[in-house]
Amino acid sequence: MKLLVTGGAGYVGSVCSTILIERGHDVTILDNLSTGNRDAVPAQARFIEGEVATDASTVLGEGGFDAVIHFAARSLVGESVEKPEEYWRDNVGATLALLEAMRTHGVKNLVFSSTAATYGEPDEVPITETHPTAPTNPYGATKLAIDHAIRSYCVAHDFGATSLRYFNVAGAYGQVGENRVIETHLIPIILQVALGHREKISIYGDDWPTPDGTCIRDYIHIVDLAEAHILALESNKPGTHRIFNLGSGDGYSVKEVVDTCRKVTGHEIPAEIAPRRAGDPAQLIASCEKAIKELGWNPERTDLSTIVADAWEFTKNLGDKAHSAKA
Ligand code: UDP
Q1: Which residues form the NAD-dependent epimerase/dehydratase domain (predicted)?
Q2: Domain with 280 in it
C-alpha cells in the first residue's frame, strides 16, 4: 500500500514505519520534527518536514495514497494540563484538517493512535473497550474527541478506521527506539540511570492502593504494537470504526519495573521515593481479548524482561546520539 505516516520520526511512528517498509509498503512520512528525530526516519521512506494541519492536504493531493496512519500528536499529560490550548490545536485541530484532506482526496482508510488515557481512572481492571471514557487530563480528552470525530467520518463519509488505544509502550526494534529530548517515561528514564546519564530514578509515590504501594501499568512491546497497526490497516472496512485496547494484559508495579531493569542491565539503579505525580491513576491494565479475537492479533513479546532487554540493547548502542547524554 502507498501510505502517509504522520509522526513517523517519533518513537512509535519510526518503528512502525520501519516494519511497514520491511513488509513492502511505500511509506511517506510527514513530521514537523518538534519532538521526533530526523535520524529515526527509515532510509527507504520519503520524508517531508511539515505540519499535518497545513501540509497533509498537499501531500495527499499528489494522489495514489491508499491509507493514512496518524501518529503525530502532543502526548505529555503534565504539559497538556498546563497548555491545553496547544493540545486542542495540535491534536484535535490538526486531525480535523487531516480528516478533511483525506475526504477531499478520497483516502478513507485510517489507523489512529488513541490511548488508555481516554478511560481516565478505571472503575475496574482489566479495562475493556466498553469501559466508560472519562479522561482526567486534556491529553486524554483530545484523543477521545478525535476518536469521536473519526467515528462520525466513518458513518457519514464511509471512512474505514481503527483507533488503537495504547497502554504503556516500551522496548525497541533493533536500532529504532525511544530517544526523546525531554524524557518522562519510566523505562527509558531507568535505563538512563543505568547508563550513568542520570543519578537516580524517582518513584512517584509508594502509598497507592496496590500490593507494594507503587502504580501498576501494562507494558506492551513496540513490535507487538506495530503488528496491530498492520492488521488494522489491512482489515479496515468502509463505514466502520473499530476501537481496540493494546497492552499485554499483565500489570507491573513501578518497583517491579525497577527490579526487572536491575536484573536485565546488571546495574544497581539507585531509586528514591518521591511525591505522587498529579493525574496518575493507581492501576491501568488492558483487556486485549477484543484485539486478539477480532483483529487476529497475537502479541508475542509480553514478558517484561524481553521488553526491557530490547530497550536496553537500543539505549546502550545510542552512544553520542542519546539526547540524555547531552543533557
Ligand atoms: N514513573 C515514576 N517515575 C518516573 C516516571 C514514571 O515513578 O520518573 C511512574 C508513573 O508515576 C507511572 C509509571 O511510572 O505510574 C509509568 O509512567 P510513564 O510516564 O512511563 O507512563 P504513563 O503511565 O504516564 O503513560
Answers
A1: 4-247
A2: 172-218+249-325
Residue nearest to atom 11 of ligand 1 (CA): 204
CATH number of the domain to which 53 belongs: 3.40.50.720
- Is 139 assigned a catalytic role? yes
Q: How far is CA 49 from CA 1, 62, 91, 311, in A?
A: 21, 16, 17, 27
Structural domains counted in the chain: 2
Q: Alpha-carbon distance 306 to 321, whole Å?
A: 23
Is the pLDDT reported for residue 106 higher than 80? yes
Question: Do residue 160 and residue 231 come from a single domain?
Answer: yes
Pairing of strands 109-115, 67-70: parallel
Contact yes or no for 285/126 (Cβ under 8 A): yes
Question: For residue 254, which atom of ligand 1 is closest to its CA?
Answer: 14
Say if residues 289 and 222 touch (Cβ distance below 8 Å).
no
Average pLDDT over residues 214-235: 98
Task: Say which of 87, 139, 166, 219 is annotated catalytic.
Answer: 139
Tell me which residue has its CA closest to atom 3 in ligand 1. 203
Mean pLDDT of the chain: 97
